[in-house]
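JOB MANIFEST
job_type = single_chain_structure
chain_count = 1
residues = 151
[input]
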Amino acid sequence: MTERIRVSSAEEDKRIEITLILRRYRSRVAEYQACRDLYNQLFPSGTQTLSDMPAHRSDSFEPERWAQRRWDQRSRMEQSLQGMLDALTDVERMLDVLEGDYKTVLIRRYLLNESYETIAERLNYSDRQIYRMHNKAINVLVKKEAICRKL
């Protein structure tokens, strides 16, 4: 019969906190990409296509409103980009504690958004070993409590 190692609720809370910090980068990247895609859809170019067709009410051009919407969306993109940079800085600070394949596993999992199976294949490990390496890396980060204080 094997004994399970009991983890205190404080340690479990730290594990969750670290995982959230690591996942925050991917969510910031997705947020920025959504802002950029919306910007490209709303403002495909700075020029207006002219044709011989008569203008419809929906074709009316309001330069002030168009410019304001473009400026607002650009501001959202800049805020999103700053959030992504802040999240990346937090992740890099955490990953500096790790070495070797442990660091690689977390980079591939959280920064590159790869599945455990893909990571195992690329690093030539079994899926189970990748899970273990991931958990050990998180445990190392938990023990380095000082890096978790800033969220």
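[summary]
Residues 9-43+70-148 form one domain.
The mean pLDDT is 80.
exit_status = 0
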